[in-house]
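Internal QA ticket QA-208
Title: Verify multi-chain structure generation after dependency bump
Assignee: T.L.

Test input:
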Amino acid sequence: MKHKMKRRSLIKGIAAAAVAVPAAGLVVGTHAFGATTSSDSSSSSLTFDPDAYTEITTTISTDDGDKEVTYHFWSAITYVTDPVDETYQSLTVSVPVSIDGTTVDATDAPILFANSVGGYLPSSVSSNTAVSSSRAQLAIAAGYVAVEPGARGRTLVDSSGDYYGTAPAAIVDLKAAIRYVRYNAGTIPGDTDKIVTAGTSAGGALSALLGASGGSSLYDDYLSDLGAADATDTVYATGAWCPITDLENADGAYEWNWGTNAASSGSEVDQTTSADLIALFKTYQSSLGLTADDYGTITTDNLDDYLLATYLEPAATSYLTDLSDDDRTTYLSSNTFITWDGSAATFTWSDYLDHVGTRTKSIPAFDAFDLSAAENNEFGLDTTEARHFTDYSLANDTSGSGGSSLDSDIPAKLEMMNPMYFIGQSNDDRAKYWWIRTGTKDSDTALTIVGNLALSLENLGDTVNSSMYWDAAHGADEDPGDFITWIGTVTGYTS
Ligand code: DHB
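Actual output:
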């Protein structure tokens, strides 16, 4: 890669001088890392040093009250031998050793792999001095191992003006981090056969993609360019909150869902464009060939009823059930579109859309005609900051960057970024356990994104725990403790 910024690979951490020598018989690093990298540095730089931690004691609040957790913390470890930018290509590890004064042995515990990517932006853990995300904190308070990876993101530009964090950089980095963990099985604490990915929004998209694309060879060239560890990147289970994914189909999905909701201007978006995009989505939805009990094949004719009965009404029911009688009465009197029979909420799709109100995004939501969307930048290349990734927006370009066809690298990158591609291929190496959530007031993407992701996995026979949070906005996580419990259930782990 011509824009690669080579830096010396540093081993960080308090015991950096005592880098472990690989055990005799362990084959490391001479074949996959390229001729320019010596086997010594490649083997040492991908070898987890079990002694290079700091011990930290902290109080973590959980559903079961506050817990005093003592844990071992490994600060930023570069997870590839030939990083482009190790500020992003590094991870931290947190391993509990005692909880409320009781010794914990996390040797065989599940490993929560919690990314903190947002907006497809760069995310770094390189200056973290402790376990960071609340999800990772809850994991160690439950006796699990938490790995927090950084990853390159779309806005990174090197001194030549090249964008070096655009697609597929983030997923390649996260896969490299998974490979690092797996490569160090037996030395890194935790059960590397029980890696559970997690992330929200763009991070939810990447988590879903890690789960769906596990073991795929599509990324191999990118991974070997980085000197990723010679190990598989399959994962056991995946948590994804409001995933901003299926990007090349998301403009149509968005219009099908939110097309008549007012934009921030107060008026509807152009309804001719909206109708064009909806027509594309109809074809796409049918092409998925998804089926659901009581519905048969899900098409745009029954998708609204399906989402209503599967997600929206149960979300409202659960919300209302949990309210006090007085609060429920108050809520229902200001939301008269809901019929409450004493135990269940019912309403129409159209009243639900009115209830949500203003849509967050303009049209098209993801491949903007003027290339102004975050996702246009995500598909940037070299010195080009932003590109089209759908034929429709290319044909309607207003940026002066139109053309007769998408750039030739785009189709492969769309596949590498889309979990639906790998699910459509029935990738047998995918995660088989899924936790999927979004808020019913989240119009950062269509509800169909979550609906189709969950249903396509169910149709493959996976174990899918999916639901929506009533009235919750973008980024919500209203049952974080339940996710942690679910990890224990699906991995069969009891500490
Ligand atoms: C995120 C939100 C968006 O609306 C989007 O288009 C991409 C990413 C996010 O919050 O990560």
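Spot checks passed. Residues 118-120, 201-202, 244, 374, 444 surround 3,4-dihydroxybenzoic acid (CB under 6 Å).
Status: verified.
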